[in-house]
Amino acid sequence: MGRLDDKVALVTGGARGQGAAEAELFVSEGATVIISDVLDDVGAETADRLGAACRYAHHDVTDEAGWAALVADIVEAHGRIDVLVNNAGIFEVRRLGDETLEAWNRMVAINQTGVFLGMRAVAETMKAAGSGSIINISSVAGLNGVGMAFTYSATKWAVRGMTKSAAQDLSRYGVRVNSIHPGYIETPMMHELRTDKEVLERGVPLGRTADASEVASAVLFLASDESGYCTGHELVVDGGLSA
Under DSSP, is residue 185 helix (H, G, I), strand (E, B) or coil? Predict the structure, then answer.
């Protein structure tokens, strides 16, 4: 018996990397999974690879109307949404003095506003069901300052705060909201650091970067009923980087 049997899950940014790893694990544990992204070709290939229990939907997380349409489509097709993983995000290296308002607004729109819109979009259907799990992907950069990635760190701190506020607000309806804080994970985003992997690993107490599947396992725990008494929690998956 799977840990997510009969659950319906939406994973944003699910075309590749960490989101695809989460979707793959969810499918293996019995869930019906919708992956959304703007990378249509890659997303369709991932859904095909994961089989009949997974489908792809084009979705820009900054689009308010798009959120409403996607959630309505899922509820019409499956009757509910049990799990939302707000995984979509971008990473860019820029220090405070190099940041532009245009770049700031773009990253805030995707990393922060997208999470807000997602939580709000699924809240009513989860409240009506009396259950649900929202998992927001923050970062170790949402626990510590990151001088070389000023705006990215700011958005991930915001995700951390929004998670806690939403957890307090939605708990009375049986809806749980938690955040995940990954460190250096082997995904296309990590390679945007443009730093030698061995240099990164020397700064990690466990001495290595992580596979995306290791983050997916943490997400699975928060998605499953095994974490039924966890809300407002920050689950850190960083090899001790923030210890």
Answer: strand
